[in-house]
Write a structure and sequence with these properties.
By secondary structure, the protein is α/β, with parallel strands linked by helices. The chain has 11 helices and 4 strands.
Length: about 210
């Protein structure tokens, strides 16, 4: 045996394609400049990517459940979202993070009108409709109509607030705690929370 007769296809992976568009080239150059300037390391970049790949709305559910169960934590979450989720082991830097609470008189909904900014490192990939031009344009102009298409019927006594994400700021909605869930564990409460509720395109969380 020569020691070189194993399958190299399992060892060496094809190189990533070189960027061809102007935007891709600018993005790559900016990344290299930020690393060279010491803003972050390639290892830190890979850690963030790995966190995004494992993030899911279940993480947002855990945060909501803690807020429902612990009034002091809820106050910290609404005052400084990034610091509060760090208590539970989540990180959303370099973005600011603001949590908006739904209650009997207020309903919040999130959008990114310019592109599709979304807290992916916390909630995973955004749904396709969130990135659509129709949702991004209409939910600002006619939020009640858009919400009705998602099944969210709101009375005139409920104020609708639309929050526009930016390149620096990410939002999450804290849904209302469902009725008749007193005494439930945080784990059981977290299971009730959906991705749409965390965006604001769902209001009622069923307990059945």
């Amino acid at each position: 045996m020569t020691g070189h007769d194993h399958d190299h296809s399992r060892t060496f992976q094809p190189d990533h394609a070189e960027p061809h568009s102007d935007g891709a080239r600018v993005g790559l150059a900016l990344r290299e400049l930020l690393i060279e300037a010491g803003h972050y390391t390639p290892e830190e970049e890979q850690a963030v990517i790995a966190a995004m790949q494992h993030a899911s709305p279940q993480d947002g559910g855990r945060i909501a459940a803690r807020a429902w169960s612990d009034p002091d934590y809820k106050a910290r979450l609404l005052a400084n979202g990034a610091a509060a989720i760090r208590e539970l082991g989540y990180e959303i830097e370099p973005y600011e993070f603001t949590v908006m609470e739904n209650d009997a008189s207020t309903h919040n909904v999130i959008v990114c009108t310019l592109c599709s900014c979304y807290p992916r490192s916390l909630l995973g990939m955004s749904p396709a409709w969130y990135k659509s031009a129709s949702y991004r344009a209409r939910v600002v102009r006619e939020p009640r109509a858009v919400l009705a298409e998602f099944g969210v019927e709101l009375g005139d006594d409920v104020n609708v607030r639309v929050h526009d994400s930016t390149a620096e700021l990410r939002y999450m909605v804290l849904p209302q705690r469902p009725d008749n869930t007193e005494g439930w564990s945080e784990e059981k409460l977290a299971d009730l929370v959906t991705r749409d509720a965390l965006i604001g395109t769902q209001r009622i969380l069923p307990t059945d």
